[in-house]
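Before the break, one more example. Copy the sequence into your notebook; we will annotate it together after we see the structure.
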Amino acid sequence: MRVWRAGLDAEELALLADLSAAVGDDRGLAEELTPVLRVSTREVERRIAEGRSLTRRMPRLLASMRAGELGAHGARRVLTVVDPLDDDAARQVDGLLADKLVEAPETAWQPGNLAQRARRLVEKVDPGGHTHRARRARAERRVELTPGEHAMSTLEASLPAEVAAACYSRVDGMARSLRRGGEQRTLEQLRADVTADLILGRDVGVTAPEAAAMVYLHVPMDTALTMSDEGCELDGYGPIPAPIAREIMTNARSTWRAVLCDPGTGEPVDLGRTRRRPSAVIRDLVRVRDRECVMPWCHRPARHCDHDHQHPWAVAGGTAGAGGGSTSVANGGPRCRRHHRLKDQPGWNTRYNPTHGITRVTTPHGATYTSRREPVLTPTRRAPARDTQAHHAQARGTQARHGQAPGAPAGRRTAPAKTARGTTDPKRQNDDNPPF
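Here is what the structure looks like once it is written out:
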């Protein structure tokens, strides 16, 4: 099985290298292959780069994969070591490594041992480039957030070795000090909590850390009142248990914001506008409604995305609004910067219907993918098949005339509005205040 799997890994990487050479656009190719390979776009980009490197720079390592000696994980470890080298130096390391492995024991093929051998050979082939490689790697330091399971995520920081060691030493020392002081939490829990406290600027070790930055947590009212345990979501992560959501919600530092949803669709109500730049209310409502980038395989939280007009606000002639798209919730959607730019690339056809939450993407080579947004709340009744902006404006105007708040249950009356925010008069629909 190991030999079979290694051979398939080799064929996949070689095929990706061929496709890269034929297409000439690795970013676009990675987007097309993301739903095909059923991995993240970043992982596809890694595989394309690895396939290119193996075929051009380390053909003997690729031959070892085809022979079943080495799988994709081990090859990735070696390629990471030789990545900073130029092509000639990488080919030298490839040859020297293959020669050393001829008589090597089987344990030499383990990824860690293989990377260690490659590291020594890199220093032998390019002894003067050690400093340059270190500086290049340090320039690529970063922090990554990876969603996990059971309402947990991993925050990973890639730092210079001495900085990372110093950070861990301080966190460990503070955790051990708290433990000696009688703290009942385990050392692992204390290290995690101390790290979070330091980042969030809180008193270290006093209590288990709580979120202090902006995150969106969606909790239906019946769940908030413990009448139900369904429908709780953390944007950028997904469903979380209702008891955990209520703990976050009842934190004294949490901020509540009421979101008026249509009971027929489960979606937040529309806020039509004619201005080019979306107001804070429009941006917030779009983020609450869509929660993530609208591309089917992208899960970047909407709060970290651009606000994109699905129908252009202005045509080439420069006439405001002539492109058919108003600045409104009904014409807006979140796109991460990468997919915002991809939308206008040749060959890509990306369509998003904000009202129904349907995304349809056609790639340059003809594959089409469709996804549907999950509503914020589960619909409780059928809604009329009317979803135009004019319908929403008319409904708000009718409710205002009868003294009823938009979205309020039938039969209940509220005090008449002091301002005509629900008016259907086009001249008076341009304020930036919410209609509820």
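The first strand starts at residue 142 and ends at 147. Residues 270-276, 315-323, 383-391, 393-436 have pLDDT under 50 and may be disordered. Try to locate both features in your own notes.
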